[in-house]
Amino acid sequence: MKSTIFKTTVREIRESLGRYMAILAIVALGVGFFTGLKVTKPAMLKAGGEYLEENNLYDLRLLSTVGFDESDVKQLNEREGVEIAEGAVYVDFLAQDEEGTESVLRAHSLLWVQNHVVVRAGRMPTAPDECVVDSLVFTRKDIGTTIRVSDNNEEDTRDMFSGTEYKIVGICDAPFYINYERGSTALGNGKLKGYVYIPEAGFDTEAYTEVFVRLEEKYPLYSQEYKDYIDEVMDWAEPLCEEVAQARYVRLKEDAQWQIADGERELDKKVAEAEDKLEDARQELLDGEQEIEDARKEIADGWKEIADGKAEIADKRQELADSLTELQDGKQEIEDGLDQLEEKRIEASDMEEGDEKDGYETGLNLAEAQVKGKKAQVESGLAQANMGSRQLEAAENTIARQEEKLRDAQKKLEDSEKELADGWEEYEENRQKLADETADARKELEDARKELADLKEPDTYVLGRDKNIGYASFESDSDIVEGIANVFPIFFFLVAALVCITTMTRMVEEQRTQIGILKALGYSEGTIMGKYLFYSGSAAMLGCGIGFLLGSYIFPTVIWTAYRIMYRLGDFHVILDWKLGVISLVVSILCSMGTTIATCRYELTSVAAELMRPKAPKSGKRIILERIPFLWNHMKFLLKVSARNIFRYKQRFYMMVFGIGGCTALLLTGFGVKDSISSITYNQFDEIQINDMSVIFSDPYKSMDSSEFEAVMADNAQCYTLAFEESGDLTLGDKTKSFTLVAPEKTEDIGLYLNLHTTRDEPVAYPGKGEVVLTEKLADKCNAKIGDTVTIQDDDMNELELKVSGISENYVYNYAYISPDTWKEQTGKEPEYKSAYVNVREGADVHEVSAAIMNCDGVASVTVNDDMKVRFSSMMKSLDYVVLLIIGCAGSLAFIVLYNLTNINITERLREIATIKVLGFYRRETASYVFRENLVLTGIGAGVGLIMGYYLHRFVMYNIDIDMIAFDVHIAPRSVLLSIVLTFIFAGIVDWVMNKKLDAINMAESMKSVE
């Protein structure tokens, strides 16, 4: 470009900066929206992928009803293609904080290689009694506090832990839980509050509850290559898991058999030893009884001897007393006799000497001698009696001592008798205890035999990442953003092209004379064209660069910030996709420079002399309103002028209408997307699936012990019904789609749990024999219509040929409904009912009932519909930020379009506006004269935009295609009203801004005219 032309172009940019900036802004907005939305999903997946890869999220999760041991893990590690396999432990438990409040947490064991937790505060555990906890539930203030395993837990649960208290040393995020979902449980109210991670030493269990596997091959997150790779891996992983579980099952069974046999031998041995001890104790007690009996006899004999001795002593004492009495009497008689002899001796002294006196004295002496002899005898008898008395006292003392000994012996005998009684009581207790313990032990052995007999082949599950709720939800959410990115930018570029056409058309028309002068001066058509190409191209390229850089940062950052409300992932990194940048640049240049070429082509083909003369004004034409006298004759003059200005300048009319209409269409589409997404939760779980919860059994219901489940139902359920559910594929022509096949046990009661109806709320009858009802999206994807015959194949390769009898409204997952008679007729087998639909009693707590059901034998899982509603509502709520972003961009687009078109309108009518100001129009009247046309065109454009927005909305929703979710495609009346109001608000803002330009118009312009 020659320097003079370049200077002229730069001057043109400076003097018409508003017009130049309009092109730049509209291109920047279009490119920013296009690149921003396009890089959002890759940026989200990159951030998520880096986070999950850095923390080594598992590829496969293996579960088995018999658990795993070290040998199982070793066998898995030896498999080709496995990078690492690690056994892990998890358990749900009632946790108690330091204030005594209980909540349900899930404890996981920390692994060395996989599923690394990310500590947000504090540190990692180093001791068995330390843990890190969920950052969604706990805060930094909780670090240093303890979590206690509540005594209200079942014994089996408490036994899983090596301790009862665990100190919180850190707050963490875990790749296993990247969103807010924590899952359900059989404890408490049925909902998990959060998770804790504990070192493996913090658990006390011999078996692993799960095994995580990392594979050697690495592929991008959510890529089709990764999904195909996992499908291939499943071909060997599932059989290997079954093989490992079967081997453990055999080991457990053999160990159980040996343990039972050892237990029986040990029990028999212990019983024999205990019976021997009891017999010895019994013999000792019998010997003790004999000894007591002998002692009792000895004591009785002793008492008898004492009694006899006492009687003998009493007799002897009586005899002695009688003897003493006789001796005393005799002694007294002797004394009396001696006294008499003394008296006679006195009498003899008075006698005369002689033979008579001698004889008398001799007689007295002889009598005295006899009396003294008797006295001596009596005194000897008294002495002997006294001695006998002392002997009797000694005998009495001896008997008293014997009595004391007998009393002591009697007391010992009583103690011995008590000890003997206690011994017999203890013997009886031990004998009873032995009998009870033996009975209990034999019952345990019998229970063990029964459990062994009832021990079933293990069920195994190999789950990929797609079965992780957070992982799967993140993919669905990113897919929605991608669906929007595929549609909206196209409309932005169309509006950008429209703005460029309008701007450059007005610019070329304004500079028609200048183009003629340049041609007259000898400038080539290419040089002159280059001026305008540089004008529009430079604006487009600058706008493209600004939009590319800002869009690549702002859009993903805003959307990522919104999604971080739901997800716990790593740091976000801006992605500059230069391929998208080149595409954006090419499209921007086509929109700007292409329209410029199309605009200038006609003018440049004209000769210089013709261009230097102004265009002859078009002949006046009557507008449509003038042909309606009833309306036209009653209109005021200014209204007539405005009407003529609106309808006479058709190019401006169409540009304004379609520009404003496009903005209204974008607003309506943004609000419509929100309406279509936000309503599916209510529609699905309040209008279609009207049951309170769904129960999955581990075995067919009719082959399991259902007494506990039925007891819970009797106490808590208003009603329930069994159902057969199985995944399968539907085929019609070359179309195949996955779905869930449902066959309730009692089809006549299905209306209590499922409301089948069309989108027009017309009821759909439940299918009869040989028929099937398909959900709407399933039918749509397979092009199935009522009356068509479809082929259904389940996972067991059973094929059913069915006639479509109805198509029902549905929004979450895909279903096909048949009757149990149909299944039996076409497969030859009775349906295995492994599901149940439950409605709880009015006023009952759904989650408490769910927890009670989870505690029942044979129940594998319980899904509460309220939880599903919360889950999907939260997922859809995060899209509000995306919709607000779209609405904000639509508003910006509306502002730019309105500003540009209004600026052009004012610029090309400067002399007209100056003239009416000279004629005495007040400021407000002048503004009303100009902006009245804008408001009318805004109204017409808004009306056109509503029609455009309706079809654009449907097109957008068609392109937001999530496999398991259908949208309720509709636009609420409120959204229509908001779109119109916002369009007029944007128009009002533009009019307010442009009012200053009206004030700046010089009235002298009205005196200028073309020579």
TrEMBL record:
The keyword Membrane belongs to this UniProt entry's keyword annotation: yes
Membrane-traversing stretches: 20-37, 483-504, 539-563, 583-604, 653-673, 881-901, 934-952, 972-993
GO cellular component, one term: plasma membrane
Recorded topology in the membrane: Multi-pass membrane protein
Parts forming coiled coils: 264-351, 385-458
Coiled coil among keywords: yes
Subcellular location: Cell membrane
One Pfam family this sequence matches: FtsX
Keywords in alphabetical order: Cell membrane, Coiled coil, Membrane, Transmembrane, Transmembrane helix
The MacB-like periplasmic core domain, residue ranges: 656-853
Protein name, per record: ABC transporter permease
Organism: Eisenbergiella massiliensis
